[in-house]
Amino acid sequence: MSDIHSQRDLAYVRTEEAPAMPAPLTVSGPIGWMRENLFPTPINALMSLIFGALLLYVIWITLEWSVFNAVWSGEDRSACIGDGAHGACWAMARAKFGQWMYGFYPFTERWRVDVVGIVGVLALVPMMMPSLPYKRLNGIFLLGIYPVLTLIMLTGGHFDIGLSTWLTVGAFVAAIVIPILLLGFVAKIIQPSHALIASAAIAGGVALLLIIMSIDFGLPYVETSKWGGLLLTLVVAVTGIVASLPIGVLLALGRRSSMPVVKLFSVAFIELWRGVPLITVLFMASVVLPLFLPPGTSFDKLLRALIGVALFSSAYMAEVVRGGLQAIPKGQTEAAQALGLTYWQNMGLITLPQALKLVIPGIVNSFIGLFKDTVLVGIIGLYDLLLIVQAANTDQKWVAPQTHSTGFFFAAAVFWIFCFGMSRYSMFMERQLDTGHKN
Amino acid sequence: MSVTTGIDGPPKVAFFNDPRVRSIGVQAILIAVIIFFGWQMVQNTLTNLERANIASGWGFLNTTAGFDLSFTLIPYSESSTYGRAITVGVLNTLLIAFCGIITATIIGFIVGVMRLSKNWLVAKVAEIYIEIARNVPLLVQMFIWYKVVLAALPSPREAWSIGGTVFLSNRGITIPKFIWGDGAWMIAVAVIAAIVGIVFLRNWAHKRQEATGEQFPVFLTSLGILFGLPLLTYFALGAPVEFEFAEQGNFNLRGGVGLVPEFAALYFALSVYTASFIAEIVRSGILAVNRGQTEASYALGLRPNPALRLVVIPQAMRVIIPPLASQYLNLTKNSSLAVAIGFPELVAAGGTVMNQSGQAVEIIVIWMAVYLTISLLTSAFMNWFNSRMKLVER
Question: CB of A30 within 8 Å of any CB in chain B?
Answer without folding.
Answer: no
